[in-house]
Amino acid sequence: VVAGEGGNIYISGTIVTGSDPEIVSVTIPDYVTEIGEVAFSGSALESITFAGDQVRIIGEAAFESCYMLKEIVLPVGLKTISYSAFAGCSALESIDIPASVSTIAEYAFADCMELKTLNFRPKECTIDSSAFEGTGVSDFTGNNGFTLYCYQNSTIDLFTGELNYSEKIYY
Predict the structure, then answer these.
(1) The pTM is what?
(2) Strands 8-12 and 15-19, bridge-based pairing
(3) 42, 51, 105, 155: which one has the fewest Cβ atoms less than 10 Å from its Cβ?
(4) How many CB atoms lie within 10 A of CB 29?
């Protein structure tokens, strides 16, 4: 983990916890299985790299209000994106959600106002109705040019229904 001066990011066993407002880049080691609650919340994080595919849970508000984060490719083994995990990441433009994800909790991506591309690979996934509140996924207004990539009749396809996306592309 790369932290700013005086950083307080810790790895305890297989869980990343702590907080460091100056952190701009992080590499999550391959043995980590969980990103703990508020681990990077409010930081100046610009990039996240997952060294492996062991992370199964992104905890509550783990990356909340990381206002510089523009893109993230989540690890292939991820199962749960918890409450407000990426809420308020106002610069987030694209996200790739792997097929392994089975739960996207309340407000997980709420108020990610610049979200333009969602690459959604799960065919079945429990998605809370507020998970994408304030984004192009749930509110087309003000977010022209949104592109959704998904499987036809998948959870996200049915979740989004007949919203008028610029493009809805099926795998």
Answers:
(1) 0.81
(2) antiparallel
(3) 51
(4) 14
